[in-house]
Write a structure and sequence with these properties.
- The protein is of the alpha/beta class and 526 residues long.
- The protein has two domains: 248 residues, FAD/NAD(P)-binding domain (3-Layer(bba) Sandwich), CATH 3.50.50; 133 residues, FAD/NAD(P)-binding domain (3-Layer(bba) Sandwich), CATH 3.50.50.
- The chain is 29% helix and 18% strand.
- It is built from 16 helices and 24 strands.
- A five-stranded parallel β-sheet has the order 3-2-1-7-23, with helices on one face.
- Helix 1 links the parallel strand 1 and strand 2.
- Helix 1 packs parallel to helix 10, helix 12 runs antiparallel to helix 13 and helix 13 packs across helix 16.
- The longest helix is centred in the last third of the chain and has 18 residues.
- It is globular.
- The two termini are 41 Å apart.
- About 7% of the residues have low confidence.
C-alpha cells in the first residue's frame, strides 16, 4: 500500500485525500487546527499559520462551476456562497466520502525531508507535532496542500514615510469588522478582491475611503449578461476557443469590449495599464464611486504624519487609517529550500505541481495557482493526476522534469510574490491539459455522434466540472444528468416567487445555432 502524507485539510487537502482513496492509496492528512475547511472556516480570532477570513466573504465563483466534479452543491444553496455555506458543503463532502477518519487534527507538520533511500524509493521522512510531542514517520509520497494565504506580504520599505505616519495601519489579514473605520478617513492600498471588499464595507461607516492602485484592474460583477453568473457565461469551451485562437490585439479588444459593457473603466479610473486579465469581482464598487463613497487614486508616493501623497497628485490627502491589501507570500516552512528550489528569483514547478528537479515525482504542490475560474475543480484535477502518478499509472509524467523551459511554469520567490502574480493560467485549458493526462478529457466530437445534445451543452454551455467525470478513471454515473440540469440548480434558489419553469433560454440558443457553430469550431481545428 502506497502511504501518502497530505498537508492541510482545506479544499485542496480534502480533494487530495479523496483522490488518494479513489486510487487505492493510503492517505494521512495532517491538519494543525481542530476542523476542516482551511480558508473557508471563519474564526473571530486570528490563528498563526492559518488563513484569516472576514465574516462577509462570499465566493467569487458560482456553485455549479465551483463544485467537486462528482459532488454537486445542494440545489437550494445560493448561486454564490457565503463562507459558512461553502464550509457546510466541504463538511458534507468529507462526510459523504468518509474523509475525516483519514485526518489527524491538531497536528502540525514540522519538517518534510528526503529519506536516506530517496534516490531509489522516493520516500519522505515527515516529522509532525501534536500535543507537544513530535513523531517521525516515513511516507512514500507527499501532497502539499497548505495554501498561500497564511503569510501576509507587507513591503513597508516600498512606502516612503510610513515610519512617521501617526495613524493606524495593518495588513488585510487582520481585518474582521468595519467598526474600526467608523467616522475615519481610510486608505486601502491595493485593489485585489480583498482590497475592494474591504473598501466597500468601510465606506458604509467611514468619513471617506480612498483606494490606491498603481496598475488599475478590470472589474466584473457576479451578475453577468442576462443576469447569469459571470463564470457560467465566460468559461465555456466556445469562449476558450475564441480567446486562445484570436491574435493578441484582437483578443485584447474583445476583453476590453466584454468588461466595459458594464461600465467604462477609464471613466472610473480603473483601466489597467498592462494587458493581463485577472479581474476583481465586486458588485458594488462602480455605484460607490458614482455616489462619492469611494475615490480611486494612483500609487502612494509618500506618507506624511497624518496624510498621504499620491503620484501625479499635488495635494495631500488626510488619512487616519491604512489597510495594506498587498497579498501574501508563498512559503513552505516545513520544506527545505532545495525541494521547491528558488533560482534566479524563480521557483519551478512542472504544470504548476511537481518540482522539476526531484529525482522521483513523489512530492506535489496543489492549489498554488490563480486561474480565471474556480480553484476547487483545479485542485481536484491536480489531485486526480497526482494520485495516479503516485499509484504508478503513468499519467504523462515520466519523467516529470521537462527538458525545455517552455514546459516549465515559474513563480517568484516568497519575498516578491504579490497576490496577482501567483501562477496565472487559462482555467479551461489547464483543466483540459491535466484531464488529458489521465484520460478524463471529454471528447466533444465523439459525443456529437453518440449524444449530440450533451455535446452541444458541453461545447456552448458552461464548462462545469462534471464534464471531467463522463469517462475515464473516476467515471461518475451522475455526470451527464448533473450537466443537463445545471441551470435548474442555478435558478432554483432565485425563482422563489414564481413556479420554476424551463432551466434557461440557453438551450433554445443551442437548438438554433448549435450545429452551425460547432461546424465552424471543427473547421478551426477544435
Amino acid at each position: 500500500m502506497v502511504r501518502v502524507a497530505v498537508v492541510g485539510a482545506g479544499v485542496s487537502g480534502l480533494a487530495a485525500t479523496k483522490c488518494c482513496l479513489d486510487e487505492g492509496l493510503e492517505p494521512t492528512c495532517f491538519e494543525q487546527s481542530q476542523d476542516i475547511g482551511g480558508l473557508w472556516r471563519y474564526t473571530e480570532h486570528i490563528e498563526a499559520g492559518r488563513p484569516s477570513l472576514y465574516p462577509s466573504v462570499i465566493s467569487n465563483t458560482s456553485k455549479e462551476m465551483s463544485a467537486f466534479s462528482d459532488f454537486p452543491f445542494p440545489e437550494h444553496f445560493p448561486v454564490f456562497l457565503p463562507n459558512a455555506l461553502l464550509l457546510d458543503y466541504l463538511r458534507r463532502y468529507a462526510e459523504h466520502f468518509s474523509l475525516r477518519e483519514h485526518i489527524r487534527f491538531g497536528t502540525t507538520v514540522v519538517s518534510i525531508r528526503k529519506h536516506p533511500d530517496f534516490a531509489t524509493t522516493g520516500r519522505w521522512s515527515v516529522v509532525t507535532e501534536a500535543g507537544g510531542k513530535q513523531t517521525s514517520e516515513v511516507f512514500d509520497a507527499v501532497m502539499v496542500c497548505s495554501g498561500n494565504f497564511s503569510e501576509p506580504s507587507l513591503p513597508l520599505q516600498c512606502f516612503p514615510g510610513i515610519e512617521r505616519f501617526q495613524g493606524q495601519y495593518f495588513h488585510s489579514r487582520q481585518y474582521k469588522h468595519p467598526d474600526v473605520f467608523q467616522g475615519r478617513h481610510v486608505l486601502v492600498v491595493g485593489m485585489g478582491n480583498s482590497g475592494v471588499d474591504i473598501a466597500v464595507e468601510a465606506s458604509r461607516v467611514a468619513a471617506k475611503v480612498t483606494i490606491s492602485t498603481t496598475r488599475g484592474a478590470w472589474l466584473l460583477s457576479r451578475v453577468f449578461e442576462h443576469g447569469y453568473p459571470w463564470d457560467m457565461i465566460l468559461n465555456t469551451r466556445l469562449m476558450s476557443l475564441i480567446k486562445t485562437n484570436l491574435p493578441g490585439p484582437l483578443s485584447w479588444w474583445l476583453i476590453n469590449y466584454k468588461v466595459n459593457k458594464w461600465f467604462n473603466h477609464e471613466n472610473y479610473g480603473l483601466q489597467p495599464e498592462k494587458r493581463y486579465f485577472l479581474p476583481v469581482l465586486n458588485d458594488d464598487l462602480p455605484s460607490y464611486i458614482l455616489t462619492g463613497r469611494i475615490t480611486i487614486k494612483p500609487g502612494v508616493k509618500e506618507f506624511k504624519d497624518n496624510s498621504v501623497l499620491f503620484h501625479n497628485c499635488p495635494e495631500e490627502e488626510p488619512i487616519d487609517i491604512v489597510v495594506f491589501c498587498t497579498g501574501y507570500n508563498v512559503s513552505f516552512p516545513f520544506l527545505e529550500e532545495s525541494v521547491v528550489r528558488v533560482e534566479n528569483k524563480h521557483a519551478s514547478l512542472y504544470k504548476y505541481v511537481f518540482p522539476t528537479h526531484l529525482q522521483k515525482p513523489t512530492l506535489a504542490v496543489l492549489g498554488l495557482i490563480k486561474p480565471l475560474g474556480a480553484i476547487m475543480p483545479v485542485a481536484e484535477m491536480q489531485a486526480r493526476w497526482v494520485s495516479r502518478v503516485f499509484k504508478g499509472r503513468g499519467a504523462n509524467v515520466s519523467p516529470p522534469v521537462p527538458q525545455n523551459a517552455a514546459q516549465t511554469h515559474f513563480i517568484l520567490p516568497a519575498r516578491e510574490i504579490p497576490e496577482l502574480r501567483i501562477l496565472k493560467t487559462e482555467w479551461l485549458v489547464y483543466l483540459d491539459t491535466l484531464a488529458s493526462f489521465i484520460g478524463a478529457k471529454p471528447s466533444v466530437l465523439g459525443l456529437l455522434c453518440t449524444d449530440p445534445w450533451l455535446a452541444l451543452t458541453i461545447f456552448f454551455g458552461p464548462c462545469s466540472p462534471y464534464q471531467y467525470r463522463l469517462g475515464g478513471p473516476g467515471h461518475w454515473e451522475g455526470a451527464r444528468q448533473a450537466i443537463l440540469t445545471q441551470w435548474d440548480r442555478v435558478l432554483k434558489p432565485t425563482r422563489t416567487r414564481v413556479p420554476a419553469g424551463s432551466s434557461s433560454s440557453f438551450p433554445s440558443f443551442l437548438i438554433v445555432v448549435g450545429f452551425l457553430l460547432l461546424l465552424a469550431a471543427v473547421i478551426f481545428g477544435f
